[in-house]
Description:
4 domains; six-stranded mixed sheet; Rossmann fold; globular; 17 helices; single chain
Amino acid sequence: MASADVVTTAEPAAGAPRPSGLVIENLSKTFPSVVALDEFGVDVAAGSVHALVGPNGCGKSTFVKVLAGIHKPDAGARIWVDGQEIDAGSGSAADAAGVRFVHQDLGIIEPLDAVDNVALGLGYQRGRLGAISWRSQRRQTQALLDQFGVRVSIDVPLALASPVERTAVAIVRALAGGAPGRGLLILDEPTAALPHREVDQLYNLVRDVKATGVSVVLISHRLDEVVAIADTVSVMRAGKIIGGGPVAEMDVSTMAGMIAGGSHLVAGVPDRADDEPVSDRPVVLRARQISGRHLRGVDLELREGEIVGVAGLLGSGREELPYAVAGAAGVEIDAEWEVDGETFEAMTLERAAGLGIALVPAQRARESVVAPFAVFENLSLPALGRLRRGPLLSPGRERSFVREWLTAMNVRASAERSPITVLSGGNQQKVVLARWLAMNPKLLVLSEPTAGVDVGARTTLYELIRARAAEGLTVLVASSDALDLVHMCDRVLVMRNGVAAAELRGARITEAEMVDTMEGVV
């Protein structure tokens, strides 16, 4: 008997595409002042891999959240899975229809082995008296892994497994218990955390999933990934599908052009000259052969007053480089460093702080903001030693310090004693940025500085960073949003497969040029 959330239909409405793995019509989602999805529609053939690509903010994440039931769509949306119409925006209906998700963070519990991780999704096998039957549980897990050709030791904690093995277990867990030859698997940036050498193994797994008849929607920034494993592709911009078709009939250049939306410069970018003299400025930091989890020998030279950008697809090394420079990569980084004429082989957080290197990390909520603290406490945290009167903190000095910086960052001073979590994402980012600017760093390292920041706050951040660079501050900024780099940078390093594949200067710093270079078109 069908769930109350599910309406079984033999065919979609007249004129709609025939039933297939996934059919979506007229899917819109409006937030206050933002249209995230605008009459979005897609047809995913059963048993195929359909790629969904587009720039940041195009609506890909909102599409996933609607399908998962996290967001309720606007009225009028219709969704079919394997010919069965489901209630749009109902997570229980999607789950009953066999829609499964593997997100970028995987949701794997690494201290547990594959047996427990699969059982947490599927349930444990139990004997007559209700106790867990570990023999049956192990047999079931091994059979599921064998079905997709996954070779993982089922008794070893997944913390000791390779990244691709953890990803494979997440995929098997998602598909466990589904009807044979049916269902829909959503893969959200599945290769983002994988070393380059393991990517082909995941491609083979996706092909095995497809061969069982399961439909796959692949969300990716990597067009080489799309070419390698997808049958069809849809390109999104501004909440709509703007183009696409069979992958065999499209080239990477065409897809990249659709994603970039043209090669014009964005209004309001700084004036640049290809031959702008920077070689006579003092070197702030020089590093040779930076190598780590994804980095494979990157040379970096930063000069006083420069804003140097780092672009690249997920897994290219773009995310790792800023953390490596700030000594916060979390893995061993091999490199030869030179700062202020001093050379050394290891960059640590303590050394970076002593050298005047400040990091504004990518994950604001997890890595920067202290959620229980008020705005003023978050802002003054690194400066407490300077705000003492004798051995004790001076509330008056702290208050003056905080109000000065809130005013400079255009954050209302009345918010100083509010929990920082009540501020908008843009104002939270301003507080985090002020925290480190107030320490007068020599080098400011930014990772994803405008994530979750609205357009107005972005403009303020761009202007502030450019103004500080004009005063001599050196800035390294890594961003998945090409417009951040277009608006701020003097030059941009484009990362591909762990190395700096190109350096863009002057009029070449455009969204289209970056996309083409990241994808290997030029």
